[in-house]
Design a protein that fits this description.
There is one protein chain. The chain is 42% helix and 17% strand. By secondary structure, the protein is α+β, with helices and mostly antiparallel strands. The chain folds into 2 domains: 304 residues, Bira Bifunctional Protein, Domain 2 (BirA Bifunctional Protein, domain 2); 90 residues, Anticodon-binding domain (Rossmann fold, 3-Layer(aba) Sandwich), CATH 3.40.50. Strands 1-5-6-11-10-9-7-8 form an 8-stranded mixed beta sheet. The protein has a 5-stranded mixed beta sheet with strand order 13-12-14-15-16. It has a 3-stranded antiparallel beta sheet with strand order 2-4-3. It is elongated and about 90 Å long. The two termini are 50 Å apart.
Length: 456
């Protein structure tokens, strides 16, 4: 017996209905990207390993899918290295390429490679799949699509303001109200680490703090202690675990807390600017919230950071995120090019819209009319009509086989095709078509012009 086929964990097949729903979301996002002035690019699904490694932090590097070299990939591994069974040392010898982890680092590589062809500031969008060797769970997959928009070559905080408005506009167009756009600034986190005396452990501090909503206060404290952050420093950080109040009150608290840190003070000033601008150009349906525990795990962020939370009545991780990175291109040899960008989580957005029943009925396209097949002569007559309808941009198809009427009508019902045409000997003689409305059951004989009008 043949083994039942399967797909790798963390990947999925998509039915025609699912593809249609995903395409609806992508179309909305792509339209807004263009309206906000972004241009499309695409990059390869895999990159050279040295392009990706070291850009995401230790945790991110572990989740990168490596691609084995072609041919005898063990030929470059000597006996001592093989015997040591040290995968970290062996991997560079047997794998020179890797599937992309996100779209931002490949974009930075693209900017450096094509810098002489680019007009700065350069605004690009990219909608492509990425891969992560993560543990699959609800809303977390090993293969998923990202919908990214970035601007490089500008230090202006107006870009951050524009991205907040972009998020708000897209989710408004998707009729997804109640979305919260969380915002923080990595300079603020750097300042906090500095004032508590743990500036040299910034990465460990931010990675732990970013997990507050997942593992709770005690879990964060435990992780910080395990990373060598002192109990005294954690005591100083404790107010952050329950940081409440209005946006103005939060900013005032941060300003006082970080008064001795130049870096932290600058982060507070940047946040204040963004918040003030948004107040002057109110959002449509989303809420902007200052979340001082938001850190985002990617090491390349240096300024404002974003994370988008679904409405409270849906249990789902973030459905978007991003931030500013001051020198991501520097790792590829192009210094002092600041960038900022955001990403939309297509898969999670789709799950949220599905759960809240927010997809319009018109999203799932179907054939407008099915012609019943009564035999070769009738099929030829029907096919001529099908071709003319298609030229008029009306989706039409002829059932391919001269099967029993019940089977053909059942096919139309299952496909939810609203009209069926019966064209037999008498219709051919009369140059007419009998049209059956599958919704109300009515049936009428008409000529082609009348048929076209009905199907419009």
């Amino acid at each position: 017996m043949a083994q039942k086929p399967s797909i790798p964990k963390g990947t999925r097949d998509f039915s025609p209905i699912e593809v249609a729903k995903r395409s609806y979301i992508v179309d909305v996002i792509r339209t807004q990207f263009r309206l906000f002035g972004f241009q499309p690019i695409e990059t390869p699904s895999f990159e050279n390993s040295d392009t990706l490694m070291g850009k995401y932090g230790e945790e991110g590097d572990r989740l990168i899918f490596k691609i084995l070299n072609s041919g005898d990939y063990l030929s470059k591994v000597n006996d001592d290295l093989y015997a040591a069974r040290n995968s970290q040392k062996m991997t560079p010898r047997i794998s020179e390429k890797a599937l992309r982890y996100d779209l931002t680092v490949p974009f930075a590589r693209y900017v450096v490679q094509h810098q002489n062809e680019i007009d700065f500031p350069f605004k690009r969008f990219q909608i492509q799949p990425v891969w992560r060797a993560d543990r699959p769970q609800k809303g977390r997959f090993r293969e998923f699509y990202q919908c990214d928009a970035d601007v490089v070559g500008s230090n202006s905080l107006l870009q951050e303001v524009d991205f907040v408005n972009l998020y708000d506009t897209v989710f408004t167009k998707l009729n997804l109200s109640g979305v919260t756009i969380k915002i923080n600034n990595r300079k603020i986190l750097s300042g906090i680490a500095e004032v508590i005396g743990e500036g040299d452990k910034l990465i460990d501090f931010t990675v732990a703090l970013d997990k507050l909503d997942k593992i709770g206060e005690e879990g964060v404290k435990k992780e910080m202690l395990s990373k060598g952050i002192s109990e005294g420093a954690i005591t100083h950080v404790k107010p952050l675990f329950n940081f409440t109040g209005t946006t103005s009150e939060k900013i005032d608290k941060l300003r006082d807390m970080l008064a001795s840190s130049e870096e932290g003070t600058k982060g507070v000033q940047e946040l204040q600017f963004i918040m003030n601008m948004i107040e002057e150009t109110p959002l449509q349906t989303a809420t902007l919230d200052l979340d001082v525990t938001l850190a985002r795990g990617l090491n390349y962020y240096t300024g404002a950071i974003f994370e988008v939370a679904a409405p409270d009545n849906v249990k789902m991780g973030s459905i978007g995120g991003g931030g500013r990175y001051d020198d991501l291109t520097g790792g590829f040899g192009l210094k002092n090019i600041s960038g900022v960008g955001v990403s939309f989580g297509l898969d999670r957005i789709c799950m949220v819209l599905e759960e809240l029943n927010l997809f319009p009925e018109t999203v799932v396209p179907t054939t407008r009319v099915l012609f019943i097949n009564f035999g070769d002569a009738e099929a030829l007559y029907s096919m001529k009509a099908v071709n003319m309808l298609r030229k008029n941009e009306i989706s039409a198809e002829l059932y391919p086989d001269n099967a029993k009427m019940k089977k053909q009508m059942g096919y139309a019902n299952k496909r939810k095709i609203p009209f069926v045409v019966l064209a037999g000997t008498s219709e051919i003689e009369n140059e007419s078509f009998t049209v059956k409305d599958m919704i109300n059951g009515s049936q009428k004989e008409m000529n082609f012009e009348e048929l076209s009008m009905v199907l419009q």
